[in-house]
Amino acid sequence: MNAPMNAPDHSNDWVDLVQAGRLSDAEISALRQRLQQSCTPGELAEFESELALNAALGSRPLPKPSSNFNARLWAEIDRLEQADARANQATHQGRTKFEVSFAFTFVWRWLSAFRAGPAVALATVLVASGLGWSQFTTHRRTQLASNVSEITRTTPDVDVLRDFESIRAMAVKPEPGDLALIAALEATTATH
C-alpha cells in the first residue's frame, strides 16, 4: 500500500488511512516521518492517538455472538416478512379507497390555504362530473352508431324486402333436429 506516500503533505488524508487500520508498519513509519516534517505538533499528537486507539482495539478479542443468535435472527426476519406481507395485503385491499381519500384530503388542504376551498372544490366536482357525463354520452353514441352500422351491414337491400318471392327464398330451411323439436312442442301443447 503506497497510498500514504501519494497523499499531499497539506491534507488530512492520513486520518482515513489510520482509522481504516490497514497500514503496515513500514507505511506507518513513512507516514510518521512525513507528518513530522510537514504537520503541526497537534496533528502529530492526533496521529499518535489514532495509532494508539487502533492498537488498543486490535488487541481486544472479537465479541462472541450468543448461542441462539442465528435462531433469533431468522425468527426476526420471518416476523418482519410476515408483517410486510400483511401490510401489503391490507394495502392492496384498501388502496383505491385510500388513494381517493388521500387525494381529496390533499386537494382540500391545498385549496383551503387559499381560502377558496369550498368554491373551487365545488367547481372541480362540477367540471369533473360534466366531463364524465360527456365521456359517457360520447361512448353511448359511439356504441349506438356501431350497432346501427352492424345492422345495416347484415340487412338486405330495401328492394329485396319489397319482393315477397325474394323474402321467401331467403327463408331459413329448418334442420332435421329442429323439425323433431317443433313436433315435440306441438304434441306437448296439444295435450295440455
Question: Into which percent range does the helicity of residues fall?
Answer: over 70%
**What is the residue-mean pLDDT, rounded to a whole number?**
75
User: Count of helices?
Assistant: 9
What global shape is seen?
elongated
Count the E strands: 0
Helix and strand element order: HHHHHHHHH
Low-confidence stretches: 1-10
How is the biggest beta sheet arranged?
Answer: none
Radius of gyration, taken over Cα atoms and rounded to an integer in Å: 44 Å
**What structural class do the secondary elements suggest?**
mainly alpha
Distance between the termini: 109 Å
Tally of structural domains: 3
Portion in beta strands:
under 5%
Can you summarize this structure?
It contains nine helices and no strands. By secondary structure, it is mainly alpha-helical.
Write structural notes for this entry.
- There is one protein chain.
- By secondary structure, this protein is mostly helical.
- The protein has three domains: 57 residues, no CATH class; 62 residues, no CATH class; 31 residues, no CATH class.
- It is 81% helix and 0% strand.
- Helix 5 packs across helix 6.
- The chain is elongated.
